[in-house]
Amino acid sequence: MKILNLYAGIGGNRKLWGDEHEITAVEYDQATADEYSRVFPNDKMIVTDAHDYLLKNYMNFDFIWSSPPCPTHSDIRRCGVNSGQYEALYPAMELYQEIILLMNFAKNETKWVVENVRPYYEPLIPPTHKLHRHFYWSNFKILPFEVEDERKHDNIKGYSTIYGFNIKDSKIKDKRKALRNMVDPELGKHIIDSAMNTKQSYFKINSLFDNEYMILED
Fold first, then answer.
1. Entry pTM
2. SS3 state at 153
3. Are 21 and 49 in contact (CB under 8 A)?
4. Angle at the Cα of 135 (from 168 to 93), degrees rounded to 5?
5. pLDDT per position as a tens digit, 17-70
6. Which of 15, 91, 95, 123 is deepest in the core (most CB within 10 A)?
7. What's the CA gap between 6 and 49, in Å, rounded?
8. What's the CA gap between 172 and 19, in Å, rounded?
C-alpha cells in the first residue's frame, strides 16, 4: 500500500505500521526529518510544505494521514489569550482546506484521515470520530479504541524516552514539543488497521451552517 504521512514529525503515528508498505513522509523541519529518517530508513522523506504537497499529490496514494499544526485551534490558545499570555490568532484554515479537498477530490479507493485537537470552537466540519483528546475526519469507519496514554505531558523533558523514542542527541530545537506532539503509536496502528480492514465508506458531512448531520456507513 502506498501511504502518505503528512506533517510526519518524528513518526509516532507511523511506529507500528511495519515495513511492508511504501511510505512517503513529509516534514518541513530538516532536523525533525533527519530524526524520522534515522528511525525509519526505509521510508521516503520529503522536506517541504506538507499542505502544498498534499494538493499536488493527493491522487497518488492509497492511504493518506494528515496532522496539520494545531496551536491556533487548541483551547490552550483561547485560555492563554484570556489570561494575557498569548496574542489572539486566526485559526489556521489549512485544516478545513485539507478535509474539503480530500472529501471532494480524493479517489474513491483512497482511504484518508485528518487528525487535530479538539478545538475551542464548534468545528466548521463535524468530525467523524473522537478518539483520545483529538478529532478525526476520515472516509472510513474507525472502531472505538481506548488506550492509556503513558505520557504525562507536564513531565516530558527533551531527554525523555516516550513510546520508545529518545531524541536527546538529535538537532531538533524543541525536543519537548516533538515528544508531546506524537500520536500514540497504538492509536496510529489502530487507525491504519481500520483503513485496511474496512470497506470503502460512504458519508456526508455538512458544515455547522447546515442543518444536516454526517452519515457514515460501511
1. 0.84
2. helix
3. no
4. 90
5. 999 999 999 999 999 999 999 999 999 999 999 999 999 999 999 999 999 987
6. 95
7. 9
8. 25
Query: Is residue 152 over pLDDT 90?
Result: no
Which residue matches cell numbers 500514540? 184
Question: Which grid cell sits at 38?
Answer: 534515522
Round to whole Å and give the CA distance between 143 and 153. 26
Residue 152 CB partners (closer than 8 Å, separation 6+): none
Residue 5 three-state SS: strand
CATH number for the domain harbouring residue 85 = 3.40.50
pLDDT, tens only, 92-132: 899 999 999 999 999 999 999 999 888 888 899 999 999 87
Residue 16 carries which DSSP code? T
Interatomic CA distance for residues 178 and 89, integer angstroms: 22
Residues recorded for the chain: 218
Element (H, E) at 6: strand 2-6
Segments forming the whole domain that contains residue 59: 2-217
